[in-house]
Amino acid sequence: MWIEPNERIVNQVQILDESGSIIGTNPDIPDEDLIALYKWMVQARTFDQRALKLQRQGRIGTYAPMIGQEAAQIGSAYALEKRDWIYPSYREVAASLVHGVSMSNFFLYTMGNLQGGSSASVTNVFPVQIIIGAQCLHAVGGAWASKYNSENSVSVAYIGDGGTSQGDFHEALNFAGVYKLPVVFFVQNNQWAISVPRSKQTASDTIAQKAAAYGISGIQVDGNDVLAVYSTMKEALERAREGKPVLIEAVTYRQGPHTTADDPTKYRQNEEVEAWLDKDPLKRMKAFLLDRNLWNEELDQQEFEIANEKVSKAFEKASSSPTSKTSEVFDLVYEQKPKQLIEQQNSIVTEGALK
Amino acid sequence: MTKMTMIEAINFTLQKEMERDNRVICLGEDIGKNGGVFRATDGLQALFGEKRVVDTPIAESAIVGTAVGMAARGLRPVAEIQFLGFIYEAMDQMAAQASRIRFRSAGTLTAPMVVRSPFGGGVRTPELHSDSLEGLFLHSPGMKVVMPSSPYDAKGLLAASIRDNDPVLFLEPMKLYRAFKEEVPEEDYLLEIGKANVLKEGEDLTVITYGPTVPLVKTVVEQFEKQEGLSIEIIDLRTIAPLDEDTIIASVQKTGRAVIVHEAVKTGGPGAEISALINEKALFHLSAPIIRVTGFDTPYPVPSVEDDWLPNAARISQGIHEVLSH
């Protein structure tokens, strides 16, 4: 019997519609968590918008905005236990903050400080990965170590729709399936890989259906619906802890540019962006909370002010942190510096070429 | 003491290291039940189980990439790449991931892992089974590159590599796997990574080599000394990253002449680096240009011509003659 292309029907998990009304199963989530999820989204968006401004002012380096993806990142990271690990790409600031990376540390990263990736072993968030898809294998290896040592810790690889085209993505899902590892592949399908649309990454109707080929579980969720993402991730983590790896496709939208060095007006229509703004993740969660009388406009305004203040403090802290010195690069290559590196390190002092 | 071939020494060392440290696990293609295509891991799965000796799907990037992930979380994986020519598939995970995790995390994460791989020619293989690609990793800061030339060295260097806290590419000359036996102590010993071995002292010329060409260089030098009444020093580098500068420079300062022998292609190869090093640090001790006897700048050729392509006895002799003619 032929397997016909895209014959598998994938139903997207949704709980909130665009207006914030419940359309799916009402999730059993305590009010304090509902509020916390929204507060994290406010915090993440505030950070994101400030980072964009700071880059324009030349105060931080290249930054990859995640505006529009708050629900996907926060809903998923909020579901984790502290002992779980995140293996992020460069657009995962929201998920990283929820799991314990400080905003000042993330600022350090964007400022090109050598200490930008230094919180990994404390926060259980791997350093930012630049090579598309490479972190999927590290997550699998981490999950493998966790299983070997019975740590009951799930590893979560965060990637985008573009990342699913990489060989490492395939190899990672394949290994995860073969060894039954506690790993979740969380794909944020934000519709664009720089300038290339999702339709040109894969002929699959959905990314979630790719799970079938690896003998692992897959699911598609509305990535702008924080409740759907959170609930789905909770279930995924339960499966993963039992050694059943999961592929999640969170359907979302990159509202901003790929990075601060990118101009999306060159390759996509404004109408498309406008249509996705109607599906904004913060808007619908706020409407949901207002409807439940868990939130009001005054609290909302206050929350943005608090978030702003925290970002300011974090930036001040990062700005007043010691800047990296060229001489330090030699100390981070091997456990013990070989003669060549000692000599090169000394040369920058004696030659006076660099301070 | 027991007489062992190099492959036996490697197998023995893997077993000892796995007994010594529960964090050591082996993974790779056909390494379990089959014991590896060269039998390096023969019997290990029976001893340690499938949890610690893992047959993987055929995916080099995943073998190295998952090893990085394991190592960063406290294991000490020993990954096998079946032939070094296959490591191109894992270049990113080797050069951009394993090598850089310490740097990227400001020293808070490390990748204590070993990637073992057979390399070198002369055994009539299909394409991409005999390539010497060590130079690629000499050019990848963060990676150490180690290669034994004897059973004794294989044991001491492999044990040191597994216990090292940085990623090590451990290259095993497949031509030497079963070429000869020698006495190998069963008890624990380590050979320092980054330290060359002066195999034989001499006064008139230094031959610098490593791995698969070491026994050949020894034979050629022996004949040469007998015929010409000369005294030639042989350095077996054992490690090319980091290079043992002190041993190389001290030797060349003494002899004033150097020939570098390796199977890797000439341009941009380890020999180029060693030659540049000598120029920087011992130029005024030189009595003659430094000569490299290496593979040619072509893809590794087909078996019918590989003996002429490789640095064979005739080409090494010619190189030595040339340096002595000045």
Describe the structure in your own words:
- The complex is a heterodimer of chains A (355) and B (326).
- Helices cover 43% and strands 10% of the residues of chain A.
- The model of chain A has no long low-confidence stretch (mean pLDDT 96).
- With 355 residues, chain A is of the alpha/beta class.
- In chain A, helix 1 (31-56) packs antiparallel against helix 10 and helix 1 packs across helix 11.
- Chain A has helices at 31-56, 70-77, 93-98, 103-110, 120-123, 134-148, 167-179, 226-241, 270-277, 281-291, 297-320, 339-350, and strands at 12-13, 85-87, 155-160, 183-189, 192-193, 196-197, 217-222, 246-251.
- Chain A folds into two domains: 12-323, Rossmann fold, CATH 3.40.50; 325-355, no CATH class.
- Chain B is an alpha/beta fold.
- Chain B folds into two domains: 2-184, Rossmann fold, CATH 3.40.50.970; 197-324, Rossmann fold (3-Layer(aba) Sandwich).
- Chain B is 37% helix and 20% strand.
- Chain B is built from twelve helices and 14 strands.
- Chain B has helices spanning 6-20, 44-48, 60-72, 91-98, 101-104, 134-138, 151-163, 214-228, 245-255, 270-282, 303-309, 313-324; strands at 2-4, 24-28, 53-55, 76-80, 114-119, 144-146, 168-173, 182-184, 197-200, 205-209, 232-236, 239-241, 258-265, 291-295.
- In chain B, the strands form three sheets. In chain B, strands 3-2-4-5-7-6-12 form a seven-stranded mixed beta sheet, sandwiched between helices. In chain B, strands 9-11-10-13-14 form a five-stranded mixed beta sheet, with helices on both faces.
- In chain B, helix 1 packs parallel to helix 7 and helix 9 crosses helix 10.
- The model of chain B has no long low-confidence stretch (mean pLDDT 97).
- At the A-B interface, helix 5, helix 6 and helix 7 of A face helix 3, helix 4 and helix 5 of B.
